Each structure stands twice: as C-alpha cells, then as structure tokens.
Amino acid sequence: AHTMMALGLLRADQARFKEAEQLVRDGLAMSRRHLPESHADEIKGTAALGLVLEDRGEYDQAIPVLREAVHLDSASGAQPTDLSAAITLLANTYFYAGRYPEADSLNRRVLGMDRAIYGPRHPNVADDLINLGAVQFQAGRYAEAAQFDAQALDIDQAWYGPEHPETASAMTILARALVAQSRNDTALVLLHRALAIQERVYGPVHPRVASALNELGHVAQSEGRLDSAAADFRRMADIYRHVYGDNHYLIGIAVSNLGGVYLDEGQPSRAEQLFREAIRRYSTALSPEHQYTAVARIKLGRALLVQHRFAEAERESRAGYEILLKEASPPADWLANARKDLAAEYDALHQPANAARFRTGT
Q1: What average pLDDT does the segment 295-312 reach?
Q2: DSSP alpha helices (H): ranges in the chain?
Q3: Do the Cβ atoms of 13 and 48 come closer than 8 Å?
Q4: For burial by CB atoms within 10 Å, which of 8, 190, 206, 265 has the most?
Q5: Closest listed residue to residue 276, CA positions, set 250, 248, 304
Q6: How many other C-beta atoms can be found within 10 angstroms of the C-beta atom of residue 98?
Q7: Buried b vs exposed e over 304-341: b needs ≥16 C-beta within 10 Å?
C-alpha cells in the first residue's frame, strides 16, 4: 500500500493524474483494510489523495479530504512536519478554489511552523513564501508579492543550485510579479533560464513548461510582440489540453490570454469568442463567482465595447465588477479596468450619472 501511494505521487509529478488517483485510492483502501484506524499510513494516504485531487483541479473534492487529513494529524499527535505538510496542502487548495483569505491565514500559520521546524533557509520555508506571494499577487499587491518571491528564490537557489527545476519554478514565479510591475528586462532573463531548465528536466510538454510560457507571453504582449505572445499562449493551451484533458481551468487562462492578444491586434470578434470560452471553462471548473470568471467577463466587456455593442458590454463589465467587489481583497487593476469601461459604456448609453459615478470610482 505504501509503495502504491508513493508510485501514485510520482505519477502526479509526471502529470499522469488519472493513473495517480487510482494508485493512491487503491493504496489508501488497502491501508484501511489491513491497518488500525488512524494509522500513520492511512493519514499520509489521505493527504496524498487530497494532493492528487488538487493536482487534477478537483478542488471541491480535495478540500474535505485535506480537512480530514489535517484533523487526523492533529488528533493523532502526529509529527509537526506531517501536520505542516497537511495544512500546506489545504491552504493550496483553498487558494486554487479562489478562497484567498483562508489560504493566506493558513500559509502564515505554516510559515511560522516551518521556520521553527526547519530553520529559516529550508525549501519548505521557500514554498510558504511563494504561497504567500501568490495571495498578494491575486490581490494586486505586486511589490509585496515580489518581496516574498525573491526571498523564496534566494533560498531555493542556495539549497538546490541554479539549474534545478525547483529553482526554475521560483524564477518563473518571481518573474510574474516583476512583469506585473513592468520590470520586463529582469523578468525575461529569469524566464528564459527557467524555460530551458524545465524543458531539459521534464520535456516540452509539462505544466511547468506551460507556466514559463505564460509569463513569456505576457512580456511579449506588453512589448507589442503579438505574434510571439500568441505562439506562447497557443503552446501553453496545447500543453494543458494534453496533460489535463479539455476541461481544466488552466486551459481557460491560456485561452483568455490569447483573446487578449487578438484584442490588441484589433480583432475584437475573435477575442470575444475566446473570452466566452474562458468564462464557460471557469464557470464549470471553478465557479461562476470565481475571480477568474470575473476578470474574463471584464475582458469580454472590453471586446464588446470596442465593437460598439454597448448594452451587452455594460452587462458583462458590470457582472465582472460586482463579482470582484464581493472579494475581501479584489485586484485593484481589474477593478480600475472595469470602472473605466463602465464609464465609457454608460456614456455611450446616454446615462451620464452612472458614467460619472464609475469615472470617479464611487
């Protein structure tokens, strides 16, 4: 049973998620048949199943499994390392499900635990810092995100060396925060190094390769190299389809990004089609109220505005804006984008009072 679960986790690392889940479920069932209740192997198997479900994007299924793992660890007096790992998995799943306050709270708790357990320069501490940076990034606090990410890269590079895939992942994550601050030159150096490492280790078709392509595409788009950006986003989408099948929300990110390129190229109707596809994917895989759904609706509103379809544009922009307003820490840049578009849409619809309200940010 122990070996089946270990093999399942290896398959998850190889992005062979269906096989991974079956192996872990079979190993966990065997442990429950042959071992006493709340045995350490059952607890670890429960956490492993939660991890695989998270990797597959099945967040609603993963959260209760990981809550059980945390409960079992706490009730059994498990080693602090096991409890920390279980809480980290739960925090990650909350993050991917768009429940950022829960993720932030758990990650801060784990950071304190891991520094006490491992010391301040351990990869687990780097992972905690990256997770905290991700929450700040989603809230639009890019400078704060970059501070967390830079600390993490420094730890990983010292621990693993400059050519390790974990170091490359930390480079990609820091580069994302730098791109958001228009620090493209530094970001590009990191991203090209990261992509080369990930392709060497994992081959050309792997989620970590797609992650680097995503950021390279954003840099190319911001610099007006639209053909290059489109190629990066298309390849990113192809990788995610190959790895996850056709229903994962990450495909929505690639599709939405490609729509943004079409919008920049002056092809709003093509962009509209892709934004609608992204909304459908996010609504199904995540939630109609998820932040990604909101941003995609704001993007769709912009594509409709450019086509002078003002009533439709207002409906989408307003829907995305109102979803973001419900969040504890909504991304300020997308709120600003929505307000700008709504002001223009209400002007076109001859509703000056509404236009003035959104123009002043009230």
Answers
A1: 98
A2: 2-13, 17-34, 40-55, 59-76, 80-96, 100-118, 123-138, 142-160, 165-180, 184-202, 207-222, 226-244, 249-264, 268-285, 291-306, 310-325, 332-348, 352-359
A3: no
A4: 8
A5: 304
A6: 19
A7: bbbeebbebbbbbbbbbbebbeebeebbeebbebbbbb
Q: What are the structure tokens assigned to 14, written together? A: 């190889």
The b/e string for 233-246 (b: 16+ C-beta within 10 A; e otherwise) is bbbbbebbeebbee
Neighbours of 34 (CB within 10 A): 11
Nearest Cα to Cα of residue 256 among 240, 224, 288, 233: 233
Query: CA-CA distance, 309 to 3, in Å (whole number)?
Result: 59
- The overall average pLDDT reported for the chain is 93
Over range 86-94, report the average pLDDT. Answer: 92
Following CA atoms 6, 205, 88, 171 in sequence, which dihedral angle do they give, to the nearest 10 degrees?
130
Q: Is the pLDDT of residue 97 over 90?
A: no
The pLDDT-based confidence of 91 (bands split at 50, 70, 90) is very high
pLDDT at 15 over 80: no
**Per-residue pLDDT at 362:** 59
Helix (H, G, I), strand (E, B) or coil at 323: helix
Distance CA 355, CA 362 (A): 10
Q: How many CB atoms neighbour CB 165 within 10 A? A: 16
Distance between CA atoms of residues 109 and 206, nearest Å: 31
Residue 132 CA to residue 251 CA, distance in Å, equals: 24
The mean per-residue pLDDT over the stretch 54-73 comes to: 88
Q: Which of 85-89, 209-213, 256-260, 317-321 has the lowest mean pLDDT?
A: 85-89
What number of other Cβ atoms are within 10 A of residue 160's Cβ?
16
